[in-house]
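Handoff note, outgoing to incoming analyst
You'll be picking up this chain. Sequence as last confirmed:
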Amino acid sequence: MEKLRERYRLFIVSNCQVGYIENFFRLSRLGHLFEDFESFGNTGNPKGMNLAAVIERNGLLGPLMVGDADGDEMAARFCEIPFAFVSYGFGVAVQPNFIFDAFGQLVSHLS
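Most recent structure output, in case you need it:
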């Protein structure tokens, strides 16, 4: 994550409940790497709308959605941005723009 942060702005969009991302930041000690986040628990909105909000409020140009489930892919399609599927996660993807089978592959590709 540190290597990605050297080159990219990082954000989290999740379907989780209120407080989950904040707990992740605290327990993982990775919070300093992320500029912003949004979740279903905070807004009650679906992931695509939350992703659009993060893109808009941070003035992102050319964002890439990285995720491990079809909901992530649908959010990317909703926002008309590319989707990178990480197959080592929890779900499946229909037609991702990129597929990575290991975190190292993702980092190498984006570095």
